[in-house]
Amino acid sequence: MTDAVRTQGLFKRYGPQVAVAGVDLVVPAGSFAGLVGPNGAGKTTTLSMITGLLRPDGGRAEVDGLDVWRDQVQVKARIGVLPEGLRLFERLSGRELLHYSGRLRGIPKADVLGRAEDLLQVMDLAGAADKLVVDYSTGMRKKIGLAAALLHNPSVLFLDEPFEGVDPVSANTLTEVLQRFTASGSTVIFSSHVMDLVERLCDWVSVMNGGHIVAQGPLEKVRGDRSLNDTFLALVGGQRDGGDTGLTWLGAKNLGAKDLGAGDLGSRNLPGGDLGAGDGEPK
Ligand SMILES: Nc1ncnc2c1ncn2[C@@H]1O[C@H](COP(=O)(O)OP(=O)(O)OP(=O)(O)O)[C@@H](O)[C@H]1O
Fold this sequence. Notes:
Elements: E1 3-14, E2 17-23, E3 26-28, E4 32-36, H1 43-50, E5 58-63, E6 66-67, H2 72-78, E7 79-82, H3 94-104, H4 109-122, H5 138-150, E8 156-160, H6 168-183, E9 187-191, H7 195-201, E10 204-209, E11 212-218, H8 219-223, H9 228-235, H10 257-260, H11 262-265
Parallel strand pairs: 4-9, 4-10, 7-8, 8-9
Antiparallel strand pairs: 1-2, 1-3, 1-5, 5-6, 10-11
The protein binds adenosine-5'-triphosphate (ATP).
Adenosine-5'-triphosphate (ATP) is lined by residues 14, 17, 19, 37, 39-45.
GO biological process, one term: response to antibiotic
Protein name: ABC transporter ATP-binding protein
Main location: membrane
């Protein structure tokens, strides 16, 4: 089976800063794939290049075997994208936004109307369908953005931190929609910092650090007999011994009077404000 996504030596620099340093990303078709990595690892830059939003300086990217930059129209017809910092048409209502997105995609009007109502129902947005998008909450914006990205029934869905700022109920709704989507053979690739979520949802994971892929494959293989979080910390060098952080001053105001010296205490703004008898001892 063709891979849903395959990149070779994908490269991008911003001035002296190499953001993506030759990435070979692979996502098999039908996967629920997670792209994880610390802040600044290059996840957004990589996804932007694969979805045709940002031109690479080097390398190539394919979606369903089609070259993203050579076969732009075919690729765009096959993908749905929920980018980071999504900009929406704020002065349309949620329903109008879906109608507009569907018509832009060239879907016949009758189909657009039906699909839009289905998506509004599933996303629990039917009650807010006539509200302007500018008045939507963060979670509602994510949901209407996802609905717009799904309307044309894409083959591959790219989501940049789709669960950020989303409450647990809405996150559950998004999860159910995405699981239904992949169960029908379509592919989801999403970036996230929430390891528990990636571990729970994904069957494929790619780990980025410093503009490189440092691990990639089926979830069980990548994490081995550890949790994904432990594997991630080991891979990106995040394991600390819990020792000297150089922040000895942090929290010092919570020390008792004996530790601080009586003269220190009066001028400090202690949590709770009142130590009681004035002897500095907790009651
Ligand atoms: N438009 C830009 N101009 C200059 N540098 C940029 C730009 N966009 C990204 N970078 C740099 O490229 C590197 C990768 O950024 P990117 O946003 O792809 O990382 P990320 O993995 O998505 O991070 P995060 O998890 O924080 O969203 C970072 O060092 C970032 O500062």
